[in-house]
Design goal:
Layout lengths: L2 E5 L3 H12 L5 E5 L2 H11 L3 E4 L5 H10 L8 E6 L4 H9 L4 E4 L5 H23 L5 E6 L7 H14 L4 E6 L6 H4 L8 H6 L6 H5 L3 E2 L5 E3 L13 H11 L5 E6 L5 H8 L3 E7 L2 H16 L7 E6 L9 H7 L4 E5 L4 H8 L3 H4 L4 H20 L1
Parallel strand pairs: 1-2, 1-3, 3-4, 4-5, 6-10, 6-11, 7-9, 7-10, 11-12, 12-13
Antiparallel strand pairs: 8-9
Helix pairs in contact: 6-16, 10-11
This protein binds adenosine-5'-triphosphate and magnesium ion.
The site of magnesium ion has 4 residues, from helix 6.
């Protein structure tokens, strides 16, 4: 039975609210006059919904909502106010309030908000109980452009989905993401849209922003317009990744050719960073510097591994030399093949388009390496 805690210094508000909410079937109402008492009650009584009344200071209500997650409590906070501006509502959502309801004579809206908050809490609990452990996360990384990150991420995602792992590809090349083109997907909903309803999201709602590929792979696409990337901040990306990690087994992340906060929030959550290098001096130097930087930032030695792309080129460096000069194991050597640009142009990943080719086999082997890591982890 959902438990609701009513908080307000005004006894009349409390009794009216109790009368309204008490009549909702299956809701158990408790009350207290101050936020200090409420602080103690959320820990002791673990209510599902806390309703903060209009006589409480608005700023203190938001501070209260902000404290809730840190106290191991799952309560959703509904703030009732006499009048609220849109800015005030936005600020409240940002700080973790579930809903802000104006009290303009009718209690119906308050009752509806409480009912909705209670069922959102129940959904989240059911989800937490039902979902498998956190997904394994693989970030495809290189600070150099054009080395094949997107080709590798897309083919990896498709291969993993094809062998039956529930896989989400996240296109974190926020300004110039290519996953939609490479997989021939219509970007009807992207990470930009997900961020627009950020404060209401949970793992299940976030699913609605994923685009499904015929292989079974689900993709969180990059914004359509480069300028929309701005609102997709690193901390939001982190939260989205944490939510996605609860609804699938593997997350593959494609990144932009940079070492910014967004990329770091992906690396932070990664089980393995697949550093892509091609066999030219500039790419190898770049990879070495990036791996050193990861180490300086405190990422453990075993985090990164190397994917050598276009690794068969005779005119470029010797693989053995490269192996010696880079402090990470090589987990894949992907040959250069004209089938790749052809498959990119057709929007059909080469592992599906030409599965018997050497390049597809190398990409499938990389997927096996990833799948092995996923399985040995759980
Ligand atoms: N193994 C390969 N053989 C032939 N062509 C390849 C191979 N891998 C990648 N390419 C080609 O290289 C180009 C760049 O690949 P991709 O877009 O995946 O690189 P990227 O690292 O994601 O680049 P950016 O940093 O600009 O996003 C593409 O046109 C692709 O077709
Ligand atoms: Mg790319």
């Amino acid at each position: 039975m959902p438990r609701v805690l009513l908080v307000d210094g005004d006894a009349r508000f409390r009794s009216q609210a109790r009368a309204t909410l008490g009549s909702i079937e299956g809701i158990d109402v408790d009350e207290t006059a101050t936020l200090d008492d409420a602080d103690a009650s959320v820990v002791a009584a673990a209510p599902d919904v806390v309703v903060l009344g209009p006589s409480l200071d608005y700023g203190s209500c938001l501070a209260f909502a902000e404290r809730i997650p840190g106290r191991g409590c799952l309560a959703r906070v509904v703030v009732v106010q006499n009048a609220v501006t849109l800015d005030a509502v936005r600020e409240a959502m940002r700080r973790g309030v579930h809903d802000v309801v104006p009290l303009d004579g009718s209690w119906a809206e308050v009752a509806a908000a409480v009912r909705e908050a209670a069922s959102a809490g129940r959904r989240a609990e059911e989800q937490a109980a039902a979902v498998p452990p956190r997904a394994a996360v693989f970030t495809v990384f290189s600070t150099k452009g054009g080395v094949g990150k997107s080709v590798i991420a897309c083919n990896l995602g498709v291969s993993l989905a094809s062998i039956g792992l529930s896989t989400i590809l996240v296109d974190l090349d926020l300004m110039f993401g290519d996953a939609a083109i490479m997989l021939d997907l219509k970007p009807e909903r992207t990470v930009y849209d997900a961020v627009q309803s950020f404060d209401r999201l949970d793992g299940e709602l976030l699913r609605a922003y994923l685009t499904k590929h015929s292989s079974g792979l689900e993709v969180l696409l990059a914004p359509v317009r480069p300028e929309d990337a701005e609102v997709v901040t690193a901390s939001r990306v982190g939260t989205l990744l944490d939510m996605l990690a609860r609804i699938c087994e593997v997350i593959v992340i494609d990144t932009a050719a940079s070492f910014d906060d967004v990329v770091l929030s992906a690396i932070d959550r990664s089980d393995e960073v697949l550093a892509v290098a091609t066999l030219d001096v500039a790419s190898i130097k770049n990879t070495r510097v990036s791996l050193q930087k990861l180490a300086q930032l405190g990422y453990g030695g075993g985090l990164a591994s190397l994917v050598l792309n276009r690794a068969d080129s005779k005119v470029w460096l010797d693989v053995g030399e490269v192996e010696k000069s880079l402090p990470a194991p090589i987990v894949a050597r992907i040959p250069s093949d004209r089938l790749v640009p052809r498959s990119v142009n057709r929007g059909a990943p080469v592992v599906l388009d030409a599965p018997r080719s050497a390049v597809a086999r190398a990409l499938t082997d990389l997927a096996k390496h990833v799948a092995d890591r996923v399985r040995t982890r759980s």
